[in-house]
Amino acid sequence: MPTPTEINLHRKSKILEIQFDDGERFQLPAEYLRVFAPSADVKVNKEAGKLVMGKQDVNISQLTPVGSYAIQIHFDDGHDAGVFSWKTLYDLGRKQDRNWADYQDQVRRHERAEKKPEKSVGVTILYFIDLVKKFGKQEEKVDLPYYIITVADLLRWLRRRGKHYEHALADDSVTVTVNKQFVPNDWVLLDNDEVAIVPKAKL
Fold first, then answer.
1. Residue 178's domain spans which residues?
2. Could you write out the DSSP letters of every residue in 46-64?
């Protein structure tokens, strides 16, 4: 198991930087470490389907060595119950992008679930390349019914407009971005999102 050769806490940028002896270097934000802290309370909340949220402003106030195998991270919101072993920190570094994307998706699902069903979600849909000609427009603003939650739901809903939509918006025919970020079809839509639908290049 790789072990750290250097650990630096950058309080101003809220980053814990770790260099491991196999050459890997990770920059782990305080919010990320707080959300994924290996403590009993965080574990219980995850098992109960509860998210650790609202930690955007959290910072690390202190690091305490634990033997030669871990550090205890003291966060400025008072949480200090988690002991981060070298293995835990290494895994969090290697899986950071995937972990954070999954967490953001869960947060979006939670926020959408908290909305009242009768409150519609408004999105702007942008069409690109030959979709503009097929649909006769470059963009449109729509209020989605409460049951339209994900990108996949939106595509299915649009396909019901007719054969030209059904063919052009088949799952394997388009890619979708939300707020200029490529997303999977199970991505949860929120109010005021900008959804761009782009035809895939034909081989």
1. 121-199
2. HHTT------TT--EEEEE
* CATH code at position 9: 3.30.2020.30
Contact (CB, 8 A) for 37 and 25: no
pLDDT tens-digit profile, the chain (203 residues) = 899 999 999 999 999 999 999 999 999 999 999 999 988 777 766 666 678 888 999 999 999 999 999 999 999 999 988 899 999 999 999 999 989 988 887 887 777 666 655 567 899 999 999 999 999 999 999 998 877 888 999 999 999 998 889 989 987 889 999 999 998 888 888 889 999 999 987 65
Judged on CB neighbours under 10 Å (0-12, 13-18, 19+), 193 is: buried
The letter for the amino acid at 168 is A
Domain-terminating residue out of 75, 95, 114:
114
| Structural domain count, the chain | 2
Q: Identify whether residues 105 and 127 lie together within a single domain.
A: no
Q: b/e per residue, 59-73, with b = 16+ CB within 10 A?
A: bbeeeeeeeeebbeb
The beta strands (E) that lie in the chain are given as 4-10, 15-20, 25-29, 60-66, 70-75, 83-85, 121-127, 139-144, 174-178, 181-182, 194-199
Domain containing 129 — which CATH number? 3.10.20.30
Residue where the block lists tokens 């570094």: 93
Q: Max alpha carbon distance in the chain (Å)? A: 67
Task: Say yes or no: 63 and 106 in one domain.
Answer: yes
